[in-house]
Amino acid sequence: MNRLTQQAQTRLDELLSHFGMNAATPLSNWIDGRLVAGEGDEIVLDDPVTGATLVRYRDAGGALLDAAAEAAARGQAAWWALTASERGRRMNRALRALEGDEEALAQLESVVAGKPVNDCRAEVGKVREMFEYYAGWCDKQHGEVIPVPTSHLNYVRHVSYGVVGQITPWNAPMFTCAWQLAPALAAGNGVVLKPSELTPFTSVVIAKLLEESGALPQGLLNVVNGLGRTTGAALTAHERIAKLVFVGSPQSGRLIAEAGARRLVPSVLELGGKSANIVFADAEIGEAVAGAQAAIFAAAGQSCVAGSRLLVERSVFDDVTTRLARAAEQIVVGLPSDTATRMGPLQNRRQFEQVMSMIDAAVAAGARVLTGGGRPTTLPDEAEGYFIAPTVLVDVTPDMAIAQQEVFGPVLVAMAFDDEAEAVRLANATRFGLAGAVWSQNVARAHRVAGQLRAGTVWINSYKAINVMSPFGGFGESGFGRSSGLDGLKEYSVPQSVWVETAPEASVAFGYGNGVG
Ligand code: NAD
User: Fold this and answer.
1) Is residue 233 within 6 Å of ligand 1 at its C-beta?
2) 346: Cβ below 6 Å to ligand 1?
3) Would you list the domain boundaries of the chain?
4) Which strands sit side by side in the sheet containing 144-146, from one edge to the other?
5) Which of 187, 362, 479, 486 could crosslink 367 through cysteines, CB 3.0-4.6 Å?
6) Is 205 helix (H, G, I), strand (E, B) or coil?
């Protein structure tokens, strides 16, 4: 067997055993306070570094989903019965259970996702940040009093949904897990979460550690693993699930929203993007190049907010793209376990093949490869897996598929514009609307352009600054609803309006009372 995969398997076995997950047949679900093996078909995961088989586990199957949903309902009843401040204290206490295991979590993610270990360490840090932030919200969901034109006291309280279903992708498994678990708990819900079948383990570990702290009711958090069309579809159809929160591709998002609509259950969709990174000639060009590089090549381009369309004012187009191509060639592409690595492989074969075929199709359509375009040449022989060199394409027209579709890989298309109006028109000329950036030293122009972008997040002279405090989500095919911040919290509760008669004698109206209607 490939030496690198052998090493990865050994490391994975150690890590799964460390978390009590049984390396031989991983216990890949966390249900009602215990680890449970799946009962469905076998799922085989490749080693992203070599393409060889890394580990096998079993799809959850329908019976486990029933158990998870029932456990979540029981756990939620106990959770909701606590005071709000007690819920906040307990979220903070639960978080402490992760202490000492952060490095093992990062290693586990790195081995399975093929993500540079340093990136995974940063992701674990985000788990902490999100729990701390939302724990603080528990006792601050005040509700309000409405000055209604009657003798009633009318107040609004925020009521939890009960059990929510969450579905997450493979590119940021721990980030998206904590991103959705924390506000769901803060608003008083129980959860059944299904991570991507490609990165199943770290969400199980996070739920397990949090619950084993003893701070959360047993069964409050449940993680089921399996394919989208089996376990995922069963989750979206389950009668106990009162709201669906989905992070993934527009294709799957459509199915999730349809499944929700069939049961009249609302959904939040956090989907993909084709974000425009706009560089004006009056920008600080060195910073814009560094920003453009991080915007697309971080996480090997497997990021929803990747700045995958670089729009550059024509007078500096050659300078910017040449500097960017040279910078791309300096990025250390290497093994995820190596701390010097800035870019690892793509996570899976399907994604690798899709990205390669999109590059080939773009070239066939007339695009020119300025750098990259295939496998990097600097890797050890055994690293035959899903690596693609940082790629910059020019001679791209806005109607080409490569300029319209999400690549989700380290591929940047660069296009020139002549004036501000054209920059805005090009930036908005996709079906997506997740993020975008403007680089300019002219303050008025930067704000003017930012205000015209149809994107949920816009940066000025920056890229990828994201924090749990600030709302995040899309326009158009990038989805609807919001995560992070107070807006993200509000997605997890329903306003309930309570009317209390304060008149000495209740005047019960027949029809709409008190002059209304
Ligand atoms: P995907 O849509 O293939 O899968 C996402 C999840 O949906 C997985 O858990 C999968 O098993 C599940 N799923 C698929 N079909 C399903 C079905 N019929 N019913 C229920 N569940 C189903 O996406 P992916 O390839 O894992 O992730 C990449 C995509 O995610 C990209 O488009 C990326 O932009 C997007 N993404 C968006 C955000 C955001 O916050 N907007 C964040 C990260 C990733």
Assistant:
1) yes
2) no
3) 61-271+478-495, 276-460
4) 144-146, 152-160, 493-501
5) 362
6) helix
* Cβ(363)–Cβ(323) below 8 Å: no
Query: Residue 461 corresponds to which amino acid?
Result: N
Burial class (CB in 10 A: 0-12, 13-18, 19+), 339: exposed
Binding site membership of 406 for ligand 1 (Cβ less than 6 Å): yes
Q: What is the pLDDT of residues 287-302, one digit of tens each?
A: 999 999 999 999 999 9
- CA-170 nearest atom, ligand 1: 26
Rg (CA), the chain: 24
Strand partners for 414: 310
CB 68 within 8 A of CB 192: yes
Contact 413, 367 (CB under 8 A): yes
C-alpha 298 – ligand 1 centre gap (Å): 19
For ligand 1, whether the C-beta of 175 sits within 6 Å is: no
Pick the CATH number of 61-271+478-495 from 3.40.605.10, 3.30.160.620, 3.60.40.10, 1.25.40.10: 3.40.605.10
Rounded to the nearest angstrom, the distance between the alpha carbon of 355 and the centre of ligand 1 is 16
Q: pLDDT tens digits, residue range 19-46? A: 999 888 899 999 999 999 999 999 999 9
Measuring CA to CA, which residue among 282, 270, 369 is closest to residue 329? 369
CA of 253 to the centre of ligand 1 (A): 7
d(CA 168, CA 483): 13
Per-residue pLDDT tens for 354-400? 999 999 999 999 999 999 999 999 899 999 999 999 999 999 999 99
Class (C level, CATH) for 276-460: alpha beta
Q: Which residue in 232, 202, 148 sits closest to 21, CA to CA?
A: 202
Answer whether 205 contacts ligand 1 (Cβ < 6 A). no
User: Which amino acid residue places its CA nearest to atom 14 of ligand 1?
Assistant: 228
Position in ligand 1 atom list of the atom nearest CA 483: 40
Give me the DSSP letters along 125-183. Answer: HHHHHHHHHHHHHGGG---EEE--SSSEEEEEEEEE-SEEEEE--SSSHHHHHHHHHHH
DSSP H helical ranges for 282-434? 285-297, 317-329, 349-364, 401-404, 420-427
Q: Is the CB of 170 under 6 A from ligand 1?
A: yes
Number of the ligand 1 atom closest to the C-alpha atom of 235: 20
- Indicate whether residue 237 lines ligand 1 (CB < 6 A): no
Q: Distance, CA 168 to ligand 1 centroid (Å)? A: 6
Mean pLDDT of 448-470: 98
pLDDT category of residue 517 using cuts at 50, 70 and 90: very low
Q: Which of 123, 197, 270, 384 is catalytic?
A: 270
